[in-house]
Design goal:
The structure is a single chain. The protein is of the alpha/beta class. The chain has two domains: 4-79, Sandwich (Immunoglobulin-like), CATH 2.60.40; 86-360, Purple Acid Phosphatase, chain A, domain 2 (4-Layer Sandwich). It has six helices and 19 strands. The protein has helices at 104-118, 137-148, 161-164, 170-182, 215-226, 268-276; strands spanning 7-10, 13-18, 28-33, 38-42, 44-45, 57-64, 73-79, 86-91, 125-127, 155-157, 189-193, 196-200, 235-239, 281-285, 298-301, 304-308, 328-335, 338-345, 356-360. Strands 10-9-8-17-18-19 form a six-stranded mixed sheet, with no helix packed on it. It has a six-stranded mixed sheet with strand order 11-12-13-14-16-15, with helices on one face. The protein has a four-stranded mixed sheet with strand order 2-7-6-5, with no helix packed on it. β12 (196-200), α5 and β13 (235-239) form a beta-alpha-beta unit. α1 runs parallel beside α2 (137-148) and α2 (137-148) runs parallel beside α4 (170-182). The longest helix is centred in the N-terminal third of the chain and has 15 residues, at 104-118. The chain is globular and about 65 Å long. Belongs to the cyclic nucleotide phosphodiesterase class-III family. Keywords: Hydrolase, Iron, Metal-binding.
């Protein structure tokens, strides 16, 4: 008889099913033993309720292995119709540094490996700033080395305050380093991905925690938002810093702007007014490190959608929700009539129970 006490770890199981069809979970999982061997072992899965797979989304199932406390996990993704028109992955605040004791790079790699397994059809990876902790050449090089070590889709980058604020050469030096290392066309730029408009914004000044968006960039954004705009079709806008009092983490009670330095966007009212003209805007921001399993992670406010992208580095609980030091991000499934925002916990390899939202199109309220 197989001795499950010798199991060191169990590889996660990934299953896809159509809405209304019960997922078929395997009778065994792949276990890695302390002696270096790898082999299948029998598993008993928790009961799955029909409501779990009645509509598009993702959820986690846990199992039991006799003779060990190690818990096997399965990632279940439910699709509707022909599946999403487009899937993307979003991470933020990786804070890669080259310190001897740093675990940031390992957390980034674990997130990328997890995304490769649970979101293999993603056609874009968006990194919403603070790729590095100090904006140094060696940190960027390490970030890119880790990124290139895992298969991933085309990647789009946003400048974060940690990427630009440290150096004597000022914004000119750190901005050029961002362009050189990431090979982005500019700090702010846009892309059409399978017919959907993606707009990436940046700070134009090396402030400590805020974003300063120039008039030229705001005018550019105004023109880009109008290009082919359709209220029944989402526009995705990315910026590292959140607008104040929008998604979770951006409130004074969360510590936003109350630590002795301002947070947010210097041109808060101008940017807010521009985005409010387009209720189909989904504005995704990092910076706060707030957890994805919070009621205000995705929220319709100020006339458009605001979404917290969390952090792969170290999540901060807000209002008592979620553990500290977590590693989280988002997977987006875009259907003709909705966008599914799916929070993912990379450290636990789970879909948080309270971490998913449906943004309907047309419409203005999540379900």
């Amino acid at each position: 008889m197989l001795d499950c006490k010798g199991i060191k770890s169990v590889r996660q199981t990934v299953v896809y099913t159509a809405a209304g069809t019960a997922p078929k979970l395997p009778e065994t999982v792949t276990a890695e033993f302390s002696n270096g061997t790898v082999q299948p072992v029998p598993v008993i899965w928790d009961v799955i309720h029909p409501s779990d797979y009645s509509k598009a989304g993702s959820f986690s199932v846990r199992g039991v292995l006799n003779g060990t406390a190690i818990v096997p996990k399965a990632s279940i993704t439910v699709t509707e119709g022909a599946g999403p028109l487009l899937s993307i992955s979003v991470i933020s605040d990786t804070h890669v540094d080259t310190g001897i004791s740093s675990k940031n790079g390992k957390k980034l790699k674990n997130a990328l490996l997890d995304l490769k397994e649970i979101n293999p059809k993603a056609e874009a990876l968006c990194v919403v700033g603070d790729m590095t902790d100090h904006g140094n050449d060696d940190e960027y090089d390490l970030f890119m080395k880790i990124l290139d070590s895992v298969d991933h889709p085309k990647t789009y980058f946003v400048i974060g305050n940690h990427d630009i604020r440290w150096h004597d050469g000022g914004y000119k030096e750190t901005y050029q380093r961002f362009l050189t290392k990431t090979k982005m066309p500019a700090g702010h730029y846009d892309e059409i991905i399978k017919g959907f408009h993606f707009i990436f914004l940046s700070t134009d000044q090396d402030l400590k925690d805020q974003a300063n968006i120039s008039d030229d960039q705001l005018n550019w954004l105004s023109a880009k938002l109008a290009e082919g705009a359709d209220r029944n079709k989402p526009i995705f806008v990315f910026l590292h810093q959140s607008l104040a009092n929008t998604s979770v983490g951006s409130y004074p009670g969360d510590g936003y702007g109350t630590s002795g330095y301002p947070d947010g966007v210097v041109q808060d009212s101008q940017l807010r007014s521009l985005l409010a003209k387009y209720p189909q805007v989904i504005f995704l921001t990092g910076h706060t490190h707030a957890v994805v399993d919070h009621p205000k992670c995705t929220i319709f406010t100020s006339g458009f959608w605001c979404v917290n992208t969390a952090t792969t580095f170290s999540t901060i609980p807000s209002d008592g929700y979620g553990p500290d030091n977590g590693s989280q991000g988002l997977c987006l499934d875009i259907y003709p009539d909705k966008v599914l925002m799916k929070g993912r916990d990379f450290a636990k390899q789970e879909w948080p129970v309270n971490g998913q939202w449906t943004i309907p199109f047309p419409g203005e309220h999540a379900k």
